[in-house]
């Protein structure tokens, strides 16, 4: 870890990297909210984010991480939503239609554009430059660790039925398609028994069953 951890009478601690755009988003929102914070600067190029201490903060090994209100949050969009709701920042419209369009606009960068440019993805891509491109290797390289991080994040919730409660939630809706995708690429799911139990429960739910790709597969050979 580089850079001093500036301790003072502040409201929060932000673990970030100066050039990280996800961290930059959170710094903007903190400033909009007038929240003072201690900054704990990690050096991504030195691998600080993969240290045991940081993996304890964020099993995904990414920045930003924000400690605030007695909580430790990861994921910049989740943090922005939290700050927006708790500090009334007005970052999105209250009108559901306008809000959906505004979120789509933001997500086009944060959810689609940004991930393919982040350090670990870009480094892996560059390291494969002279190798025969292998889709399966690529998928396995990212999906298995992604599911491992998801599992560790899920440890926050004691096991009930679905990921985070007794009714289907956002996490289930994202997990189930990803498990389907993992199987497609031959990823061994046995290290994730809890995810498989959630999958069993979701499979029995009519909404998940109705949405399964096999119910929507075009006629003819799979492509
Ligand atoms: N979706 C996450 C993405 C976080 C992310 O990718 N952070 C980058 C810096 S912008 C990072 O930590 N990269 C380290 C790596 O790729 O190994 C968020 O919005 O917080």
Order of helices and strands: EHEHEEHHHHHHH
Write down the domain tally: 2
Q: Shape, please?
A: globular
Mean pLDDT across the residues is 93
Total of helices: 9
Structure report:
With 223 residues, this protein is α+β, with helices and mostly antiparallel strands. 49% of the residues lie in helices and 8% in strands. The model is unreliable at 1-7 (pLDDT under 50). Bound molecules: glutathione. Glutathione binds at residues 17, 20-22, 44, 49, 62-64, 75-77, 110, 118-120.
Can you lay out the helices and strands and say which pair or pack?
Blueprint: E1 12-16, H1 21-33, E2 37-41, H2 52-57, E3 65-68, E4 71-74, H3 76-87, H4 96-113, H5 119-127, H6 135-154, H7 170-184, H8 193-203, H9 206-211
Parallel strand pairs: 1-2
Antiparallel strand pairs: 1-3, 3-4
Helix pairs in contact: 1-3, 7-8
Describe what is shown at a glance:
The protein is of the alpha+beta class and 223 residues long. It has nine helices and four strands; from the N terminus they run E-H-E-H-E-E-H-H-H-H-H-H-H.
Provide key terms for this protein.
binds glutathione, alpha+beta, Glutathione S-transferase Yfyf (Class Pi), Chain A, domain 2, single chain, 2 domains, disordered N terminus, globular, 223 residues, 4 strands, Glutaredoxin
């Amino acid at each position: 870890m580089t850079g001093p951890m500036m301790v003072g009478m502040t409201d929060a601690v932000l673990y970030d990297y100066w050039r990280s755009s996800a961290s930059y988003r959170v710094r903007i929102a903190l400033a909009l909210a007038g929240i003072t914070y201690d900054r704990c600067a990690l050096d991504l190029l030195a691998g600080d984010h993969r240290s045991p201490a940081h993996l304890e903060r964020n099993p995904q090994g990414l920045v930003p991480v924000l400690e605030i209100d007695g909580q430790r949050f990861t994921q910049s969009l989740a943090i922005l939503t939290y700050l927006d709701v708790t500090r009334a920042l007005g970052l999105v419209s209250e009108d559901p239609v306008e809000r959906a369009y505004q979120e789509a606009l933001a997500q086009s960068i944060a959810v689609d554009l940004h991930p393919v440019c982040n350090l670990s993805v870009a480094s892996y891509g560059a390291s494969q430059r002279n190798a025969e491109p292998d889709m399966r290797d690529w998928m396995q390289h990212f999906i298995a660790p992604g599911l491992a991080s998801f599992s560790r994040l899920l440890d926050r919730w004691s096991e009930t039925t679905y990921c985070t409660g007794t009714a289907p939630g956002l996490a289930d809706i994202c997990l189930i398609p990803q498990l389907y995708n993992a199987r497609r690429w031959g990823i061994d799911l046995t290290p994730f028994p809890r995810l498989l139990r959630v999958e069993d429960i979701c499979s029995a739910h009519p909404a998940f069953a109705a949405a399964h790709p096999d119910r929507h597969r075009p006629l003819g050979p799979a492509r």
